[in-house]
């Protein structure tokens, strides 16, 4: 980490943690005033505003008016239970969200107690020594130190998006973006005292806009709720007009409203997303946009950048080649003298404090092979530097040596760019290209190296690299090994129905070689180069997309174009990236994925997911979770739907048929107490069914509440309603007692709800009982429910509250038979309703 160029000077010192701690007390944390945070009270308020509670309170009031004090008290008890339940659920989500926020807070490289460490930027204090590097945000107002320089994008302070070049002792400002370079700096001002703090700007993330799924759910809930209210009003009217008993009519209406209200859906949605994000964080995947995980389940194309994602991005210089000599690291130890100059100029064309792994590799090789020769020039002075540009993939650096009058220029870059700079003739280019292809075919990244002299040392330097008179020196080839887990992960992605596309700035031959190593399609039509791509208009590009798996020599802007073209042709695009230039494409993709430790801050800010461990395999984990959340959501929805049909039916039909009221608020509440926790706790925990991974991505326009889902839910619920009505009518006829019939019907309903849970837990056929063994939440749930049911049927006090009667012995076998029938029906419905 320390600078190699400054070794002659005493290294600047950092702070000790004790001093830093004191300074932190004095100056305050290095952060801007935060947006509002959700405290416990606000959560409670949110809970209290829930419509379910309002309905309960209204019911309580009606009970008081008709003088049923016990019932009113019991409702009050339920109010407390419901509040406690939703409070616990909401806290669980907001806790996991807070933990995520903590994980995603920015970090800075700081020298503390003589050791470089990554600390939260929040803990920086004036006087700290930090290091900033390409792709990072400046964590505070800093003064640059040493000889290195950086390029900055200060647009967020100035509105100017032209990069500015700065070197010591210039100041750089908090929140600006380092687009190139690596430099040490001293912290001058933090938090509200920084330039950013003074203008009151904030880097707060965008407010979370509701996603399609959230909007769809909100729409469904609204629609169902208004239908419910209308029905409830209608019921109250019918009842009131028919019997003249308006209070009981109101009670029936409120009961129906409670039965219909799909209040668990939004809860299920937030809880599934936030718990899913929390689970993923434990797998070292940070979710910055919650719905992105579910979206990942729908991804159909995965665009990956080669360097750093598919490969480890640790370069090693493997071969050097000039027209006179060649060297392979694996076949010889010493570098022949005739290649010394080639390596010397490759290093001169690099930064002294190298950020780029290629340059680090060149520097490392030079230290191994050129140490003690006259080819390392610590005393040369940098005069000018021509950076790499998309138009010319080559960079040059101009040097002044103490013992020469003319300036020396070293250039390195993509071979074709260097050939261009050297103005080589066509035949020589052709032979050289053969050599490049030979090196690249082994998966090596090839760079050309050239040198020039500029005699008139006091004249102004030319504006572009082409104006120098370059002489070609040779080629260097670097290896960047493929990550060990990549071939397997790629195969798994493809098995899951995802198309994988490699996007790289590298040479076609290198890209092809890597594609073969990782098992991507590599036939001729599968590859397109950036220059070819530039000739296509949007329609032609879209036509070219099918079957494409490698894009090489693409420029950063072209990544954006590829993503947009893919999306325009109906694909759901997940895209990985790590560089400063990748941010627009990451934003444009449906799911942007950034590498956590190696990727740039900017890429992380633009991404929806961050792979904290930098391993490609965890993307696959995220994909599995995406499918899992999506499938479990669907299961929960089918369950909620199926369970509401009989509840609504039993509240509505008796009134319409002129029977005595069957379900009362207390029954609905009892059921609610099973249903709410059941959907969130039991379905959320379900592991992914293997078939869902093979089934391919969900269609983008597929709704969460699609026809298959509705059909299955209505089938299960409708069947159950018929069974319950039949059971009710039969027991009533046979026992002559409303209370016995109600007890029977309710007990059957509760047993069937447990059956519905077990049936919808696993959608693949079979496995009805397996649920009890593998899902502890389900086991407890079932046990608790049975105990509650037994209490309501068995304890005289409760029996009265529930308006039950003791079930005669003959009813028990009938109950068991009914439950078995329901279970068989649910098992059958899985075959009918499958997609
Ligand atoms: N520091 C450098 N010095 C000289 N040439 C460079 C340097 N960096 C990149 N190049 C040239 O530019 C080409 C494209 O580089 P670029 O950075 O766009 O690819 P990349 O983003 O590293 O690759 P990938 O897209 O696979 O991640 C390289 O293949 C190389 O020829
Ligand atoms: Cu409900």
Q: Determine the fraction of residues in helical runs and give it as a percent range.
A: 40-55%
Q: Please state the overall shape, judged from the principal axes of the Cα atoms.
A: elongated
**How many helical elements?**
31
CATH architecture of the largest domain: Up-down Bundle
Label the structural class. alpha+beta
DSSP summary, beta strand count: 23
Strand content: 15-25%
CATH superfamily of the largest domain: Calcium-transporting ATPase, transmembrane domain
Q: How many structural domains does the protein architecture include?
A: 4
N-to-C terminal Cα separation, in Å? 56 Å
- Small molecules bound: adenosine-5'-triphosphate, copper (I) ion
Task: Produce a short descriptive summary.
The chain has 835 residues and is an alpha+beta fold. The chain has 31 helices and 23 strands. Strands 1, 2, 3, 4, 5, 6, 7 and 8 form an 8-stranded antiparallel beta sheet that branches.
